[in-house]
Amino acid sequence: MKKYIKKNLIIIFLFNISFLCSVCSAVKENKKPAYFKAEANTCSIGVYIYSDTIKKYNDNFRDLTETVDNIGINEVYLSFSDLSYERNKVKYKEKLNKLIRLFHKKNIDVAALSFGTPTLIFDKNRLREKSNNITEYNASSPKTSRFDAVTADLEPHMLKEHSRWKDKTSIYWTKNGYRTNNLKLLEKTFSALKNIKAGINKMPLSEAVPTFYLKHFGTADNMSLLAKYNNHGCDYVILMVYSNNFEKIVRFSKKALRSTEVKNSVVICVKTGKNTSGGGGSKTTLSGMNRDEFVNKMNNLIKLLNKYKSFRGISFFEFEGFIDILNIPGQN
Fold it and tell me: In this structure, what DSSP letter does residue 167 have?
């Protein structure tokens, strides 16, 4: 009888151990991936969100903000449509108020993504109008629904002779024009950024800058090109380190961060977008990369770059390609 009881106790004990192991395994499998939650405590981690994405989530902004928060994003560059604002201020403001409020509830900063046309560098009046739209939106919105910053995307290198803006400029960006026309366009960009900064009521301002600018634009006074952006209204730059090669991303990032001593002045941006218009094609994007490898390498990159004084954070261009890499269920 004692042997029978002992045998049954052993069986029950082993069954309980087996059951607990299976429960632990199930919990582990259902646990949400950490993604960038830990690194979000050490720097800015941002993502570009365009009008198509806003429209996609129009009936459920909560899903969008929760997804962004769960990934570990703490800053978004949110498309601000001047056309929509000017056509129907009440309706457009109502939509933005709701979305920005939900982001702020998650402690996510929101920058107005605007000034995305290179010909704006020649148009002071339109720069003023666009600046006024953002400041007017903020002034007429509750504090919880206001933009925290402004992100510009002037990119004067788009003004090539055969571009869609060819009839709106007499100065074209050329392959060998870095001491002539290209330099003039860059100086025009600096002036435009100063005008934007003056018009947005001291809100933080950033500008997207491609890496090849650093290679081709020398500075007579030995000041870093990135520091020059800081001297012309930018609180920080978003450096477009676009490549499908992680070693190149690391190398370019380190070189850029070493080039300036201005604290928290550089965000390293990688491309995650699936549709890669412009030069370089698929060689410029991390789209299609394995999720675990992507997350691991990005987290390691953040840890490495955090050692540099000028490093402000990482950003991803853009949201749809980003969540596609992360393979988040129900979002694609």
Answer: G
Identify each DSSP E strand in the chain by its residue range.
Answer: 44-49, 75-79, 109-114, 149-152, 205-210, 236-240, 266-271, 311-317
Q: Hey, how many other C-beta atoms are within 10 angstroms of the C-beta on 69?
A: 18
Report if residue 24 sits inside a domain. Answer: yes
Predicted local distance difference test score (pLDDT) of residue 85: 97
Query: Are 251 and 281 in a shared domain?
Result: yes
Q: Among residues of the chain, what percentage have pLDDT more than 90?
A: 78
256 versus 332: the higher-pLDDT residue is 256
Give Cα 217 distance to the centre of its chain. Answer: 24
What digits encode the pLDDT tens for the residues 262-315?
999 999 999 999 775 556 688 999 999 999 999 999 999 999 999 999 999 999
Q: What is the mean pLDDT of the chain?
A: 89
Q: Give yes or no: residues 306 and 226 share one domain.
A: yes
> Given the structure tokens 């012309």, which residue do they identify?
232
Buried/exposed 258-289: b ≥16 CB within 10 Å, e otherwise: eebebeebbbbbbbbbeebeeeeeeebbbbeb
The DSSP annotation for 57-70 comes to TTT-HHHHHHHHHH
Q: Is residue 319 part of a domain?
A: yes
Range of the domain at 4: 1-31
Nearest to 227 by CA among 249, 258, 251: 258
Asked, for residue 126, whether it belongs to a domain, the answer is yes
**Distance (Å, whole) CA 158 – CA 153:** 11
CB 266 within 8 A of CB 304: no
The per-residue pLDDT for range 216-236, each reduced to its tens digit, is 886 555 568 999 999 999 999
Number of domains in the chain: 2
- Is residue 175 domain-shared with residue 196, that is, in the same domain? yes
- Determine contact, residues 279/240, Cβ cutoff 8 Å: no
In this structure, are 236 and 309 located in the same domain?
A: yes
